[in-house]
Amino acid sequence: MPTFSRLKFDIDIVETLSEAETAYVFFTASFDLFEDAIDILIQNVFRKDDYAVKYAVEPLLNNDGPLAQLAIRIKLLYGLGLLSQDAYQDIEKFIALKTFVQSEGESIDFLSPLLFERINAISAVAEMIPINADDNQPEESSHFIVQMKLDHNRQVIKSSLILAITEIIKELHRDTSLS
Q: What does UniProt give as the signal peptide span (predicted)?
């Protein structure tokens, strides 16, 4: 993928995730981005013009095929060596985050201790900016100062997640011998 396309692709990811107002919307959008990126990689690897490949692989990838689920697709990509162990585990954690956030509902906040614990377990986030739980507990101050600190902490978490997702998706789009 040329540099300009890569830059536009990265900008699209950042814009999509930045527009998410809530954790619920953010993790739903991130799941969709991972699905799209993995689908592109799967298409590059398996959906060739060769009739035999099309005939054998196409039914596996359809909506009701065994490779329809994202969790199964990433296992296949990991098994083929197209995905590093860290990226594989992080995508699994993002899948689990989407499920968790959906079970909690739209009111879940980025600073929720249960969500925060799961975010901190993502290696791509921890590598960029290790987030400390203590940073989410503002000191007693005026309501305005407390709100500013909370908003800042939310933005740090969201920005770290955006960078992590962008890096994982970049890994999915690197050139390989199979694509």
A: none
